Amino acid sequence: MIITEKWPVLGRHERAAEWLRIWTDLGRAPRTIDAYARGLTEYLVMCDREGVDPLTANRAHVAYFVRELTERPSRRGANVVSIDSGAGLANATLQQRLVPVRLFYDFLMEEGVRESNPVGRGRYTPRGRSGGHQRGLVPRLTKLPWIPNDSQWMEILAVAAEEPVRNRVMLALAYDSALRREELCSLRTDNLDPAHRMLRVRAETTKNGLERVVPYSTPTGALLSGYLAHRATISRARGPLFLSESRRNHAQPLTLWTWSKVVRRIALEAGVARFSTHTTRHLCLTDLARMGWELHAIATFAGHRSTESTLAYINPRELHPTGEKLRVAC
């Protein structure tokens, strides 16, 4: 099993390897499996180090694991933009590490190996003697999304204007169509409808399996036309839209990590370190709200199953017409 080759500790814990094998057989995305393997590996390493059998571990052992995570210094060091946990890992990262541990214990309960889950989850029950909201093991922090102000946005666009056409069209599409990073990098040539300035976001590339068709602007269409002509000098084959131009991976599909590095470089050069690959999605959805779109329409555009997810993307205190500035800059 490839996953145990990458994470050897899983090979020493038969039940853990079995659980991951089931998720893999169910067709979960490779990145999801990798994230689950990473989180569970860290927990199992802690168990091995402390002499704890993970099959019989209790809440105190999980609490010790949480304390380790909260005290761990970040490997990014000076590149850390903000830390909302008050320690080395952000609150969202803590939640991400605990999810596979909780799911693993859910699996053990279903298999009759355990009677309870030491991780638990936050839930709401009808009010009564013991009813009400029960907090999860680690409080979940929900913050308003960060959006650059006008001057910061103009700095980003000034730097982006000097980028190669591929990077400019990717930034424009990421905003116009509110694309997630994976959706953007997974676009294919046959997902485009230039005549109607529409693109199809395939279900298998989305976070929740919802396919959608979204528009892009006229200036972005012109920029895209220029990129397609440039792409033909790299490869005339149909397939992934965005290709690498490096010597090492020439004409290969552009990876998520390469695009993240491009955006990070632009952000640092512009002096706006908080700008990320997801910021354009926040900007787009916030601008749609500013223009008076109804919430359910924005949710459909974004590919959200629930309007609650959409609300988390819109910062009512940061609404400003950045969209028009992007179109002009492109």
From TrEMBL:
Cross-referenced CDD domains: DNA_BRE_C
Record Gene3D superfamilies: 1.10.150.130, Intergrase catalytic core
Residues covered by the Core-binding (CB) domain: 14-109
Domain of life: Bacteria
SUPFAM superfamilies assigned to the protein according to its UniProt record, in alphabetical order: DNA breaking-rejoining enzymes
Keywords: DNA integration, DNA recombination, DNA-binding
Stretches assigned to the Tyr recombinase domain: 142-330
Classification via InterPro entries: CB (IPR044068), DNA_brk_join_enz (IPR011010), Integrase-like_cat_sf (IPR013762), Integrase_catalytic (IPR002104), Integrase_recombinase_N (IPR010998), Integrase_SAM-like_N (IPR004107), Tyrosine_recombinase_XerCD (IPR050090)
Presence of the UniProt keyword Hydrolase in the record: no
Name under which the protein is recorded: Tyrosine-type recombinase/integrase
Organism, as annotated: Haloechinothrix salitolerans
